[in-house]
């Protein structure tokens, strides 16, 4: 039975459509929605006192905006009567989504499909495709509007 639904969001229209589907399932199945957003970590380095190099991750406007948008979507899920847990993670989106699904023991992952085009898609693939190739959890991909 589906009780834990993980929704990956990049705050796009496709991701919001995926969230709407997850809310529907969450309400019908009395489940919980785990909302996850993965942001890019800034590539900055600082020297520690001992001379070793350690990554530094200052809060950026993009990160602060992401937390605000994540909060808005969390409120939307809760207003629909569905329990919601929101998480923002830094790093590679596909890797973090798979890891978070495993961590929360998601029964289903719901994602929007965002098309990359040209050479970038050929070389990297989309986040959704990479998640599909590496996850052991069922994934429901919501196609874009025609």
Structural overview:
The protein is of the alpha/beta class and 146 residues long. It has a single domain, classed as HUPs (Rossmann fold, 3-Layer(aba) Sandwich), CATH 3.40.50.620. Helices cover 43% and strands 25% of the residues. It is built from five helices and seven strands. The strands form two sheets. A five-stranded parallel sheet has the order 5-2-1-6-7, sandwiched between helices. A two-stranded antiparallel sheet has the order 3-4. A hairpin with a 5-residue loop joins strand 3 and strand 4. Helix 3 packs across helix 5. It is globular. The two termini are 31 Å apart. About 12% of the residues have low confidence.
Features:
Rossmann fold, 146 residues, alpha/beta, 7 strands, 5 helices, five-stranded parallel beta sheet
Number of strands: 7
Helix percentage: 40-55%
Please, how many domains? 1
Radius of gyration over all CA atoms, rounded:
16 Å
Q: Report low-confidence residues grouped into runs of 5 or more.
A: 44-54, 115-120
CATH superfamily: HUPs
**CATH fold node name:** Rossmann fold
Give the CATH class: Alpha Beta
Overall 3D shape: globular
> Per CATH, which architecture?
3-Layer(aba) Sandwich
The sequence of SSEs as H and E is EHEEEHEHEHHE
Mean pLDDT: 83
